[in-house]
Amino acid sequence: MQHRTPPVRLLAALAAAGLMLTGCAGATPAGNVASTASAATVDAATPRIVTTYDGGVQVAGPETFEVLGDFALEGFNRINPAGDGRHVIISTAKGFEVLDTGVWSDGGKHYAQDPAMTDTAFPTSKPGHVVRHEGKTILFSDGAGEVTVFESDDLAAGQPEVETHRAEEAHHGVAVELSNGELVLTLGNDEERPGIVVLDEDGKEIARNEDCPGVHGEATAAGEAVVIGCQTGVLIYADGAITKLDSPTEYGRIGNRQAPTSPL
Question: What are the residues whose beta carbons fall under 8 Å from the beta carbon of 261, sequence distance 6 or more?
Fold first, then answer.
């Protein structure tokens, strides 16, 4: 691996465009223990910054911006916290690929090693949103209209076991699985994205609302109320029902509604 000094424009953008990850507090799966042999024991799992640039992905230290890892990766790539505080999921031309930032906690001890691209991947066309909720990571493939769900901490042991769901049609969408097994899933196709549908743990539809033009983005509030952005306001799914809150103006796009990426 060849380390490179990031360009000045990259340093200026790191805090705004990158992701800062630190190892999870508390224990991680047994699959993480094997990697401690090549890792250094440290006082704390100091956060690292992951950022894309034209031609690759870099991992840097948060204080000096020293480049700790530089990985060539062509194309328009997007980075997303994986949900375990250690890994990053990168939406690439090949699908969802996983990068190990190299810092984590296990059994009250903290470890650090060189960051690395892993062999863990979820091949698909047009990989889109990555959602973290209640210990699970949810991937949405825009090209296939497929939802992939797995336990976030399982990434420490390699390729995780997954459950999959299929949207009615392929579209640029998003999904979130709630702790009771319900799945909130957007509706749409290449021409429109009108709303959401909610499925129970057996895949049976229990709620639907198609009064949400341009549906895009999600966030989960207290009590697992799911907020979905529309061009005319928001949809809120809570306690088995969907409520539409209209914007005060005819066009009130809240399409980039997204859950915060911290704490990790």
Answer: 19, 81
Q: In degrees, to the nearest 5, what angle opens at C-alpha 60 toward C-alphas 111 and 130?
A: 85
- 180-229 confidence digits (pLDDT tens): 999 999 999 999 999 999 999 999 999 999 999 999 989 999 999 999 99
**233/213 Cα distance (integer angstroms):** 9
Q: How far apart are CA 160 and CA 153, in angstroms?
A: 9
Among 174, 155, 167, 2, which Cα is nearest to 89's?
A: 155
Q: What is the pTM of this model?
A: 0.84
Contact of 70 with 115, CB cutoff 8 Å: no
Tell me if 212 sits within 8 A of 228, measured CB to CB. yes
